[in-house]
Fold SH3 domain-containing protein.
Amino acid sequence: MALTNPAQVVDISAALTALEPLGADQYCIAFGPGATQFCATPNGYSTTQLPRKVVKDLLGGQLRKVLHASFGSDANSYFFTYERRGGGITHRAGGGIPTGLKSFVNRISSASKERASSLRVQLGANGSYVAWAGSLWASRRISEGLRAVLHHMSSTDFDETNGSQGVLMSGTIDNIAWHDNSSWYFKNGDAYAELCTSRGAELLRAAWDNLTHTNLAYIAIDPHSPTGGTFAFFEKAQDGREPNFVLRFEPEDIVSRLHSKRNPPPSYNQVINVPKDLEGLQVFQWAVSRYTGRSHARDSWELELKKGERVKSLKYMGKDWFLVENQRRQHGWVHRSWLDFQQMIPHVDPREAYARFTVDVEKMLKTGNIRTFPDLPRYMNACTKDICSPRKTDPHCLGICYHDLHELMRGSGDYCLDTLKMERNKWHPDRFARYCHPDHRETLREKAQALFVLFGVLMDMFENPPAPELAA
Ligand SMILES: [Zn+2]
């Protein structure tokens, strides 16, 4: 099935506002790959891009609070914990969470109601996770240092092929965060709380050193940021004032708020929630920067641009400001006057497009007797280059160019030779023809052949990267 409405934006701001905020000093900042983010704070909730099922849960009106959330590398790898209106705790797990985690979740869920209620899951990059329920925990692919701490704090623990498990000596896990660069934070009640930073995480260390640790409420480290330099620290609220916090979105400078500071810059709103401004986001729009630099050179929340650079406008933030992502996946605010939208087509996030494409193709192959070729532009139609236009509009061709296919495959979250090879194999003309209805076999074989070749182009370019403008 093709996308019915690729540009549809589901507005969940009302649903988020209807939720009860977390209690004092309770936070959950969940960073996902790309622009995905979910924040729950005592001030309310905010988000960019959520999994479809979570959006449905939120719109269902049955939830009182979102207690915890985390995102893995894959679009389908996520875990949310809700408190329901009628009382009781439920979870929403994405189908793409690691196998070992699934069995831990199943085991806990089939135990007592109390045990299941205490289940929390922290997902990280590259299939890493730590899940816990009461004193029980399970983990996989975390750094040796963090694994050692879990060992140290446990009365019993062991490693299996599918990950590690153990039982804490006391309490439960209150806060855990890590990045592949070996930085991590772990808090186990009053028994243990420590931040470990590796080389290259100097800013994280500096931010930590500037805080009063005894007064710390919460720490989040973005596991998906390039070098582990995206993080958030919140202190406990005192004397009814808004709590101090420190934030950094790699590669921008650290921003922090002390209670004396007034009128925080708009980037604070990304994490410090302003529910009425926010909505679910599933589309973005290409734009080209008109100038080099920032419109206000000293405002670090603005994204630094290069003239002619192709960027993604992820979200309209109001008052002519856009949240923009550049090709290095860095985020920041950009004023409308700096962006040339060049009549480019708004389309779904590549991750969502890729997920739908994969599901649709698998379904199509499973059903067999194929009579029509997938309508590829419905998944990705990003390129508006003149040179590609004749091929894209020719009804005998695929309707997409290699730029579009590149964009779609980037949504796999793992753009590499193996992924391209694996995807290409699905379209091997002889293999594909076997799934086709005899009346249409020859035309479909030709289309599959064309797509097979297009994947080959991407593979060639991956191995021999040409001029940087291709990545656009
Ligand atoms: Zn193109």
Residues 349-471 form one domain.
